[in-house]
Write a structure and sequence with these properties.
The protein is mainly beta. The N and C termini lie far apart (118 Å).
């Protein structure tokens, strides 16, 4: 998003706040009902309120003035713009396509995008632009490509994606750019790719990810940027790959309260908390949670100069590797079992153990009996070399360690442990001696 656009949005929101403080909206709310569409541009033509009253239509589209609703069914043409609150119902068995050298869809108030059909928007400027809220729900697939700007932009409202719709956005600047909150609660998968900007940007409030669909964000700048906080409360997995910071929270906590896995891989901080006293709060059951930084640390608070991590479920996690103030930290609940045994006796081995956290190392000590040494050691059936009777085992799965000892000494008087073997040796020696004596006697007779 350009600096000009950011400044425009801040001036607009500041004006609303100032007006509220001055009591200008105490009599009438800012917006209490949907404003009728008074102008619609579609398929290269513009229709005013009088035209719209006649329920016009064209190739792949129709207008219902009573419902104030535009239906796309096989539409494949230029961008769409409207004055008022626009509702678009996307339907049909074939993909609807909007191709524009400017904005794909432009609305000067709010936009509602619903239906069970697929929609592809290819635009040079914003894929979708609205001054107010953008609500996207229903089924089907939404694909947006913006070669020069944002995927979805709201100047002063929320951007909400819900239902079961899947979404794929590739943008030059920001994929989802909300004036207030950015909320994704869909059960469909969402894939966001920003070539030179942010994945999700909430310029005034929070980013909330609460759906059961998976979310993948790839951004050259920050993956998430929220002026307040970030809440990940869904059951879908969240993966963020960022060229700068993974998740930035300007004034609130980063709260992970869902059951999905979370992976944040960034060049700089994976989690950056900009306000003193804010935390990375683990409140859910997702597993594992992975935060890694190529150049700096995993979790960082710029206000405090530390890396606070808390939350009601923090103690239920096994911190597998690292600490928040190192380059990588993984919180996992996976545990493994270590089983040990001696094959054939003649020594001992360290006892096994239950519930070992994933990634931990256990040191196995082998103690052979006197006159015995290690013959071989296997880990999960694979023979493994051992030095100085010690073996370190990485617990990345259940492990079974078996040792076999072998005899190395000479039996002393009274030691009958290998008596059969020694009887055979003595008999062989006796037979050899008898042969020599017999040969000697035969030579004596000949002489």
């Amino acid at each position: 998003m350009t600096t000009r656009r950011r400044n425009t949005r801040k001036v607009f929101l500041a004006g609303i706040i100032l007006a509220l403080l001055c009591g200008l909206f105490t009599v009438m709310p800012l917006k209490t009902f949907a404003a009728n569409v008074t102008s619609l541009s579609i398929e290269g033509n513009t229709y005013d309120a009088t035209d719209l009253a006649g329920n016009p239509g064209g190739t792949g589209w129709s207008w219902d003035n009573a419902a104030q609703e535009l239906t796309l069914n096989g539409y494949n043409d230029a961008g769409i713009s409207a004055t008022g609150d626009l509702v678009i119902n996307v339907t049909g068995s074939t993909t609807n396509t909007i191709t524009s050298a400017n904005k794909g869809i432009f609305v000067d108030l709010s936009l509602t995008l619903k239906g069970d059909g697929d929609l592809t928007i290819i635009a040079v400027d914003d894929g979708i632009y609205a001054d107010d809220d953008v609500d996207i729900f229903g089924d089907g697939h939404l694909q947006i490509t913006s070669s020069d700007d944002d995927g979805i932009f709201s100047l002063s409202g929320d951007i909400r994606i819900s239902g079961s719709r899947s979404v794929e956005i590739q943008s030059e600047i920001v994929c989802i750019d909300a004036g207030l909150n950015a909320v994704i609660s869909t059960s469909g998968d969402v894939i966001l790719t920003s070539e030179n900007g942010y994945g999700i940007y909430a310029d005034f409030l929070d980013i909330v990810i609460s759906g059961s669909g998976n979310l993948t964000v790839t951004a050259s700048d920050d993956g998430f940027w929220a002026v307040d906080g970030v809440i990940l409360s869904g059951s879908g997995d969240v993966v963020v790959n960022a060229g700068d910071r993974g998740i930035y929270a300007g004034g609130g906590d980063v709260t992970i309260s869902g059951s999905g896995k979370v992976t944040v891989d960034a060049y700089n901080e994976a989690i950056y908390l900009d306000d003193s006293g804010t935390q990375l709060l683990l409140e859910g059951t997702g597993c594992p949670l992975t935060f890694s930084s190529e150049a700096k640390i995993a979790v960082y608070n710029g206000g405090d100069g530390n890396s606070p991590v808390g939350g009601s479920t923090l103690s239920t996690y096994n911190k597998v590797t690292g600490a928040p103030d190192t380059a990588e930290v993984i919180y996992d609940k996976t545990t493994y079992r270590l089983t040990t045994s001696v094959n054939g006796g003649h020594g001992t081995i360290s006892a096994g153990e239950e519930n070992i956290a994933s990634g931990e190392i256990r040191t196995i000590l082998f103690t052979p009996d006197k006159d015995y040494e290690i013959d071989k050691v296997t880990v999960n059936g694979i023979e493994t070399p051992v030095k100085s009777n010690v073996l370190d085992v990485l617990m990345d799965s259940d492990k079974e360690v078996i040792v076999t000892y072998k005899y190395t000494g000479v039996p002393k008087t009274g030691d009958h442990s290998d008596w059969i073997r020694w009887i055979i040796i003595m008999l062989a020696a006796g037979a050899g001696l008898s042969g020599i004596v017999l040969l000697y006697r035969r030579k004596g007779k000949k002489n």
